[in-house]
Amino acid sequence: EISACLVGSEMCIRDRVWNEEDASAIDEMFEGAGRAVGPGGSGMQQGVDFRDHELIGPEGFKFFHQSLLGLVGSVTISVTDSMTRGDWIAALCMLNGKCRKTGADAQMSGQVYMRLANDQIVEAYNHWDFISLFAELGLLPKDTLMQCLSGKRVA
Fold first, then answer.
1. Residues with Cβ within 8 Å of residue 147, at least 6 apart in sequence
2. Nearest to 155 by CA among 140, 134, 133, 143
3. Residues 63, 48: contact at Cβ < 8 Å?
């Protein structure tokens, strides 16, 4: 049986990582060799190699965590729906927070598909709507997706 700690509604490690901004909880969130796919872009940052769809462990996730929290504070992540199969869990999520620069509300939806062991992430696949979040934060034009779909380069 999979614990609801990472995806349930009760206060747990997910809340420590995001709501309380406790980076040390990331080590508890991952099984020793646990990896995540999806959070990160391309390039080297502080010795961590971030490539699209590359697996990152706790140290890489800490850099991602620090970077996202540099933009958005007062983060809460809620799980709107989830299902399990064996030791796998799929969850639809909503991140809500405040832009650190302006104080404006910020929101993005996402999905995670994780394999857990002893309530820790062994592997996780993340898909979050960063384009919408960055548009809300004023880092991308509001019509970024439509520009890209029309073949225009976003400046």
1. 141, 153, 154
2. 140
3. yes
How do residues 15-25 score in pLDDT, each as one tens digit? 889 989 999 99
Q: Is the pTM of this model over 0.90?
A: no
Q: Which two tokens stand for residue 22?
A: 């406790």
56 forms beta bridges with 36
SS (H, E, C) 43-82: EEECCEEECCCCEECHHHHHHHHHHHHHHEEEEEEEEEEE
Q: Which of 148, 152, 46, 135 is nearest to 99 (CA)?
A: 135
CB 90 within 8 A of CB 82: yes
Check whether 4 has a pLDDT greater than 50. Answer: yes
CA distance 49 to 76: 27
Under a CB-based contact definition with an 8 Å cutoff, are residues 37 and 114 in contact?
no
Q: Which residues are CB-neighbours of 73 under 8 A, at least 6 positions away?
A: 21, 97, 98, 100
Three-class DSSP category at 22: coil
* CA separation for the pair 1, 71 (Å, rounded): 36
Using one digit for the tens of pLDDT, what is the confidence trace for 91-132? 999 999 999 999 999 999 999 999 988 888 998 888 999 999
